[in-house]
């Protein structure tokens, strides 16, 4: 039963909460839960993600979500920082694929790169200048830069997504991976499992060690890494940035 000690914003004390278990790796401190969506469930949750039907339903359970969603739809305010970081470490790309890039609103280099594609299971309309592509179209292209931002914290099996991406790169180009560095994982993450009580949207909480272990497992080579302070819909948070290549 939820009480004040949970410190939640929109779920009131006295409410019950669907049962799940938090799990944490003792070696790398990766924190996750035992509910893993099937691909059908994932497709259902993220089809027209944050569209009208989704927003209406979520605002019912989370009063105020509609206003937050409007801020999210305006896009992130740190894209120029990401572009500057990528320019410094990888140079200007001549083609970009944003894997899980929604409408392309947050995709780097849309203003300076002539060829920007988005692959996303939401099937939303993309912004002008960006092309939505299918898996088949991806297979017939090579990209200088693949970006995958704020995606793998949502998916049931992050390694499957990263191996999928690696396959499409065919040993060429670079991958920019951006993943939230959740507040609860700061400092010593060993007891994050005790502090973590409510799971919502993000089903994987990465430590630096778990993220590095994951990309290594998927066969990527680390070129550069950093942490970035971001403001998303009025909230300050931090994120891991990794630049990788998939050279054999
Ligand atoms: Zn681990």
| Overall geometric form | globular
Averaged pLDDT, please?
A: 89
Order of helices and strands: EEHHHHEEEHEHEHEHEE
Distance between the termini: 50 Å
Bound molecules: zinc ion
* Number of strand elements: 10
Give the proportion of residues in helices. Answer: 25-40%
Could you name the CATH homologous superfamily? Vaccinia Virus protein VP39
**CATH-defined fold name:** Rossmann fold
- In quaternary terms, these chains amount to single chain
What is the C-level CATH assignment? Alpha Beta
Q: Low-confidence spans: pLDDT under 50, at least 5 residues?
A: none
Q: Structurally, how many domains make up the residues?
A: 1
CATH architecture: 3-Layer(aba) Sandwich
Description:
The structure is a single chain. The protein has helices spanning 39-46, 52-61, 65-73, 79-90, 135-139, 158-169, 192-195, 208-217, and strands at residues 22-24, 31-33, 96-99, 116-119, 131-132, 145-149, 174-181, 204-205, 221-232, 235-245. By secondary structure, it is of the alpha/beta class. A seven-stranded mixed sheet has the order 5-4-3-6-7-10-9. Strands 1-2-8 form a three-stranded antiparallel sheet, with no helix packed on it. The mean pLDDT is 89. Zinc ion is lined by residues 25, 27-28, 30, 210, 213. Residues 25, 27-28, 30, 210, 213 line the site of zinc ion.
């Amino acid at each position: 039963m939820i009480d004040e000690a949970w410190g939640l914003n929109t779920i009131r004390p006295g409410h019950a909460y669907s049962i799940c278990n938090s799990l944490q790796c003792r070696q790398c401190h990766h924190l996750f839960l035992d509910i893993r969506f099937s691909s059908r469930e994932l497709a259902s949750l993220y089809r027209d993600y944050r569209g009208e039907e989704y927003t209406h339903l979520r605002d019912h359970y989370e009063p105020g979500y509609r206003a937050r969603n409007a801020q999210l739809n305006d896009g992130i305010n740190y894209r120029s920082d990401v572009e500057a970081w990528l320019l410094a470490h990888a140079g200007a790309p001549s083609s970009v694929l944003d894997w899980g890039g929604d409408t392309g609103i947050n995709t780097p280099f849309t203003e300076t790169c002539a060829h920007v594609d988005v692959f996303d299971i939401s099937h939303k309309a993309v912004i002008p200048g960006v092309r939505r592509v299918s898996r088949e179209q991806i297979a017939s292209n090579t990209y200088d830069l693949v970006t995958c931002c704020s995606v793998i914290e949502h998916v049931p099996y992050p390694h499957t997504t990263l191996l999928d991406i690696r396959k499409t790169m065919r040993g060429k180009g670079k991958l920019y991976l951006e993943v939230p560095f959740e507040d609860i994982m700061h400092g010593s993450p060993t007891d994050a499992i005790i502090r973590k009580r409510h799971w919502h949207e993000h089903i994987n909480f990465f430590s630096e060690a778990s993220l590095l272990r994951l990309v290594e497992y998927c066969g990527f080579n680390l070129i550069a890494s950093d942490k970035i302070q971001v403001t998303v819909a009025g909230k300050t948070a931090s994120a891991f940035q990794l630049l990788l290549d998939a050279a054999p």
